[in-house]
Amino acid sequence: MDFALFLGMDLCYYSKTDFATMLQKGIIMKIAVTYDNGNIFQHFGRTENFKVYEIEDGKVVSSEVIGSDGIGHGALAGLLAGHDIQVLICGGLGGGALNALKNAGIEVCAGASGNADEAVEAYLRGDLVDTGANCDHHGEGHECGHHDDDDHECCGGHHDGEDHECCGGHGEGGGCCGRHEQQLTLEGKNAGKSVRVHYRGTFDDGTQFDSSYDRGETLDFVCGTGMMIRGFDKAVADMEVGQAVDVHLMPEEAYGPKDPEAIITIEIAQLPGSENLNVGERVYLRNMMGQPFPVTVTAKDDSTITLDANHEMAGRELNFHIELIEVQE
């Protein structure tokens, strides 16, 4: 992240935790959802339609369905960017597609399932959980609209190559697309196989940040292909169907350590409007190229404000209770 872009940039930014506090009036945020018959389509690279929602002051003001024109993976990032999409909500996607979307300045909230309209409302409330590239959290899990960029659902790391995308996601219509010619990132009897798990994620103080049990929907992914954060993936690689395990992950096996270079303190006068922000608030800034990126306000005094662009789960130790429900050979 080049924080020099903070200085003198066009401040078109809005809060993820409270869109009603958008700092520049008249800005309309656009959210796209992979779409099929009212629900979230579970495979980003194969979606035929997106439902695009215009958001103003934290509320949906209009929506329309657009076609994908039959293109897939990285090319879809260009399509969405061409429609000025700032956020994508989807079921599953691979690391290559995730990188392409990020390079286009589009935030991704993956691992969603069910009704598309309800998912958008959950995003606006900060209740929607992101799995990251879940064909990548535990892919990078966290709540969309509250905790993120890379934004707590478990789908994990990223993998190279847009052709390795799989479905990921949860719930009905979810599941992965099956076994592909994917490069395995770890060994184990379940590596390369589509698996279905239930899990519960907690911090060391016992606070729960995510649970597939609470949602009543399993997490489906291809084990060992980089869809999940590495520690989660490793735990599942040698499990037996019906087995449950408890694992403790250090940051290196989860979202990595915090990058001090992704934290900057600047004069409030250099970011007009930032005087209205509060510590803990998650906001989006738009750089001089018009690309939005999320930061968290971590400190503020009368003259300066500190912004952190690290993943909100970076540097944290995580605990998971994982139950293997099914393995598809």
State the secondary-structure class.
alpha+beta
Main beta-sheet strand count, sense and barrel state? 6 strands, mixed
Question: Which outline best applies?
Answer: globular
Number of strands: 18
Order of helices and strands: EEEEEHEHEHEEEEHEHEEEEEE
> In whole angstroms, how far apart are the ends?
41 Å
The percent range for helix content is 10-25%
For this structure, the CATH topology is Chitinase A, domain 3
Unreliable spans are 1-27, 136-143, 145-181
Share of β-strand residues: 25-35%
Mean pLDDT reading = 75
CATH top-level class: Alpha Beta
Number of helices: 5
Protein model, in words:
The chain has helices at residues 74-82, 95-103, 116-125, 212-215, 230-237; strands spanning 14-15, 29-36, 39-40, 49-56, 59-67, 87-89, 107-109, 128-130, 142-144, 194-202, 208-211, 219-222, 244-249, 263-267, 282-286, 292-300, 304-308, 318-328. A hairpin with a 2-residue loop joins strand 4 (49-56) and strand 5. The chain has one domain (3-259, 310-328): Chitinase A, domain 3, CATH 3.10.50.40. Strands 2, 3, 4, 5, 6 and 7 form a 6-stranded mixed sheet that branches. The protein has a 5-stranded antiparallel sheet with strand order 1-15-16-17-14, with no helix packed on it. The chain is globular. Helix content is 12%, strand content 30%.
